[in-house]
Amino acid sequence: MNFRISISPANIEFDCNEDNNILAEALTAKINLPHGCKSGNCGACKCQVTNGDVTQEDNTNMAIFSQDEIDAGYVLLCKSHAHSDVTLNLPGFSNSHPIKTLPAKISSIDKSGTTAIVMLKLPAGQKFEFSAGQYIDILYEGQNRSYSLANYATDKNELELHIRYRKGGLFSEAVWSQLTVGSIVRFKGPLGSFTLSKNDKPIVMVCTGTGLAPVKAILEQMIATNNLRPVHLIWGNFTTEDFYLTELLAKWQEKLNLRVSLCVNENPPIGYHNGLVTDLIVNEYENLMDYEVYACGNSQMIQSLYQLATTQLNLSAGNFFSDSFTPSK
Ligand code: FES
Predict the structure, then answer these.
(1) Band of the pLDDT at 124, cuts 50, 70, 90?
(2) How many domains, in total, are found in the chain?
(3) How far is 287 from 257, CA to CA, in rounded Å?
(4) ipTM of the predicted structure?
(5) If 214 and its partner were Cys, which of 133, 136, 137, 164 is the partner (CB 3.0–4.6 Å)?
(6) CA of 188 to the centre of ligand 1 (A)
(7) CATH of the domain at 294
(8) What are the C-alpha distances in Å from 169 to residues 163, 166, 178, 239?
(9) Domain of 259, in residue numbers
């Protein structure tokens, strides 16, 4: 059965079938409600229901809510189903970058170790606006694969993707063995809400693997807007060979108030930290009360970091922003 979802105060509406979660129906209607993982892990789709009958799926992780939020009617939209017309309270939401489906031509593929930097050229005259930190879904052979946009919006009409090689991975195998400069791919976006807040708190920016991609976009945005908020970038990989674009780190440090820590799980050379990104945070921070934490990487790291930061290091849950990815074939 279909119901009407109203977003207040933006006065945006869409239809929602009760068999599907509210977030999925919003994205189908090309309304980019705030979200990240789409699987109930990151809390980015948390939203207050002010009117209507909404239930959450049995496996919803209620630890993601404070008691005040539960009392005020907050739900995870990626885990919620509407059983009547519903009103959602989303102050500040405007759907400013509507979701589009577009073709793009691969203009370059640069491979560095296990990572390919893929540039997509948009059709001439086609406007595609996005915020630094958002992602797109590549539509390939009838399936979707999500990749963060690694560049800050420019007038070049190009999108930058960082794609790690994954044996048997649908799109990563294609990038390594089938697609070439000139190949056409289709994508849907922009999606997600992993974007820079407007306040001036110092930032702990944590990423693993190609989680560097949205971080790069956000740092480029900060350079372009002369934003000198203190940033501590903590980037982890299994081995030193998994790091890429490291030549950018010193350039960013020249233009930003940026400190960089690199973590590897095994055999760290001089200058690298041994262990997980969360180990480094435990060693370096006693209290994150006055910070914002941005995290992009595998969902296990995101969950560990969220638990650590909010339960042991006094970080407010509202100051934790994440974009988690799950490797898919
Ligand atoms: S918890 Fe819903 S998008 Fe992550």
Answers:
(1) confident
(2) 3
(3) 20
(4) 0.99
(5) 133
(6) 19
(7) 3.40.50.80
(8) 10, 5, 13, 21
(9) 203-325
